[in-house]
Amino acid sequence: MNIEIGKTYLLTTSAWFFAPDGRTYRAAFGTVHGIHSSEETLGLRTNAKSTNWYVQIGALTIAGCQIEYAVQTDECDMGQVCDYKVTEQGECVKYFRPSDIFDADDV
């Protein structure tokens, strides 16, 4: 599967990243505007030990080496997420937290 320009994707990343809202995220959802070389993105040619391609998704640019999964989808639920934690007493407690998906089209 190739990433198609103009379609919306959910891209998961191998590391957390900071977004303009100050939060950290592990994925981005938005419209792909381009796939560019390091020269186009950074203004210089990187060496063989660095990534040489980048994806522009919404207002975000992600290095190709950071993309773990790419899912083409028109919808993405970025509401609260159900999660679990274990207390010191060994109890499993359910709670809700904000999503770790950044809406790159809504900046």
Count of structural domains: 1
Average pLDDT taken over every residue = 93
Radius of gyration: 16 Å
What is the end-to-end distance? 28 Å
Structure, described:
The chain has 107 residues and is mainly beta. The protein has one domain (8-103). It has one helix and eight strands. The strands form two sheets. Strands 1, 2, 3, 4, 5 and 8 form a six-stranded mixed beta sheet that branches. A two-stranded antiparallel ribbon has the order 6-7. The protein is elongated.
List the helices and strands and how they pair.
Blueprint: E1 8-18, E2 24-37, H1 38-42, E3 53-57, E4 60-63, E5 67-72, E6 81-86, E7 92-97, E8 101-103
Parallel strand pairs: 2-8
Antiparallel strand pairs: 1-2, 1-5, 2-3, 3-4, 6-7
In short:
Helices cover 5% and strands 51% of the residues. The chain has 107 residues and is mostly beta strands.
What are the defining features of this structure?
8 strands, mainly beta, 107 residues
